[in-house]
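Subject: Interface between my chains keeps coming out wrong

I've been trying for a while to get a sensible model of this assembly. When I model each chain on its own everything looks fine, but I need the whole thing in one frame so I can look at the contacts. Pasting all components below, labels as-is. Any help appreciated, I'm running out of ideas.
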Amino acid sequence: MKKRSIVPYGPQHPVLPEPIHLDLVIEDEKIVEAIPSIGFIHRGLESLVQKRDFNQMVYVAERVCGICSFGHGFGYCEAIEDIMDVEVPDRAKYLRTIWFELSRMHSHFLWLGLLADGFGFENLFYQCWRIREKILDVLELTTGGRVIFSVNKVGGVIKDITPEMAGAVLDMIHSVKKELDVIVPAFMQDYSVVSRLKGVGVLTKQQAHDLGCAGPFARASGIGSDMRKLGYAAYGDIDFDVVTSTEGDSYARCDVRIREIYQSINIIRQAIEKLPEGEIAVAVKGNPQGESFIRIEQPRGEAIYYVSANGSPHLDRMRVRTPTFANLAGLCETLKGADYADVGLLILTIDPCISCTER
Amino acid sequence: MAVMKFIPEALKNLFRQPVTTSYPFEPAEYPERARGHIEITIDDCIGCGMCTRACPLGALKVDKNEGTWEIDRFDCVVCGYCVEKCPKKCLRTAPGYQEPEPGKTSQLYKKSEEALRLEAEKKAEAARKAAEAKAAMEAKKKAEQSSAEA
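Reply #2:
Try treating it as a single job with all components included. I did that and got this:
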């Protein structure tokens, strides 16, 4: 038997955007096993439901994570609305869809940039983040925040998108699409980039299914699971296809995310076209009582919100199951047999969001 | 396989203007909706304390008798829930972020003398009216009693 050694990887590592620790069992340069451990940024946000009332919790839920912040606020509101049988106005549903897709776009651009940084392509990294900046500017214009939007509330949304703002969003997605067209060949065709991505960290469809992977990570392995097809918010009225790939390697994951950006552009266009007139929120009276279980598609995959309420302003329990947690098992599987030099890249390909995972 | 697909785009950057602004030498531009900090029109405040109860951080303090409104800007995350809850709409979010300070201090807003005087007058007026109404009520009761006795 060859000599095995254990290399600690993280929580502080240049390639990691957030702290996660992996114990890598290596033989020569090949990974034999990876043992993850999390728990560096646990903040106990879920238990805050017992100290803050259910309306205040919207703002706490948003702060679970900086990149998926809109989705968390949205998922929590959906769960409470489900318990209280609140029918959200159509306009609010469309506005939520637009903001959700904008946040998906900026999340995917952030990931593309991090990936480029991961394989050492600094210029491409900055190009991605330069484009992302435009999306953040539009989000700041329409919601008032660049990272935490605070536009969701139980019963609808707080702010409206005026026709001028809708015009600004359309202009932005038009120019983003043009600039994305320029950088896509660098990811998809450049010889050195492709050689770093193709055939690296393959996860078969069966493995992805057995390990319960979610989001673009699973879709790259051929599992067409997209919670948006459940038709929450305005997704039921919007025409879009689930983006999948069959290879299941890092290249496929990159491809899926790039195509999802184009898809988000398409969805935003449709949503702005169909944006109905009317109220943006309904008044909510009383306190929630009962349980609810909501599944939504975050930029990183399927997220689950469980809320249990007892008729008082304070909830009994809130639980969030985040996509990164589901994908950690898949990550450990892809790491087996990989080169040590590819570890950073492979961790990035699941788009880890550790703040979400630990809450 | 294409080699160096990105070279033309990278070379263009040599001749482009920088996309960043050289803040703080150039002022930063914020859109109108930017949630930078909370502002108050203190003279419109009725001291109801809705904002204090709404604040998820507990960053606000209101004293109705003194006519003061206090905010700890280092606790405030500018979520805007107090703005949402304020019945008099005297709170609003405004662009411009909190500047750094050596210590964690709170800012106190006090109603102007004019507003306090007006409020006191209104209170006195209301008290006078209430007293009058009470007196009228008592007189009416007395009259009813005497008529019943007669």
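Reply #3:
Confirming on my end. Strands of chain A lie at 4-9, 21-27, 30-37, 152-153, 156-157, 289-298, 301-310, 315-321.
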